[in-house]
Structures are given as structure tokens and as C-alpha cells.
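Example record

The entry below shows one chain as it appears in the dataset: sequence first, then C-alpha cells.
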Amino acid sequence: MRTAIKITVAALLSLSAAFGAFAEEFTKGAVNKVDTKAKKVTIKHEDLKGLDMPAMTMVFRVEDPALLEKLKEGSNIEFVAERVNGKLTVTQVK
């Protein structure tokens, strides 16, 4: 019985690690516009596999002021976008 519980816990941990890695997949894009007042950025991006979206140009929210400062119009970036409270939001940039 304990072996079954250990296997189940190990499987759940592996599954959560896999989903965590998948959620943080970086996507290449180019910054078209930065609106610091509205905390938004327009990015022309490749496919967003984690969100099942094709390549396009779209507006994202940026909640973190430190991330917003990193974004410059015309720059090429790699970023992570996630749904935060139902809104597409840039959560990481490199």
C-alpha cells in the first residue's frame, strides 16, 4: 500500500514539473509599442504554443513594472505569456 502511495506522489510531482516547464516556454518576438501608462506592450510574436495561438501581432498586459522597463520599441525579445485573471500577460522577458 505504501509503495502505491509513493508511486502516485512521484507521478503527480513529475506531472506538475512537466506542466511547470511547459508553462514557462519562451517565445521569440519583436516589440512594436510600449504603453507604460496602460501597462501594455504590443509584440509581433511567433506561435505561442502554451496558449495554442498562431504567430501574430497583439497587445499584452505587463503587471510587473521591472519587466515593463526592459521592453523597448524595436527590440527583439524572448518572453513568456500567460493568462492572468483572464488577460494575456507577459510574465517573463529575456
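Notes for this example: The two ends are 46 Å apart (CA to CA). Residues 8-23 have pLDDT under 50 and may be disordered.
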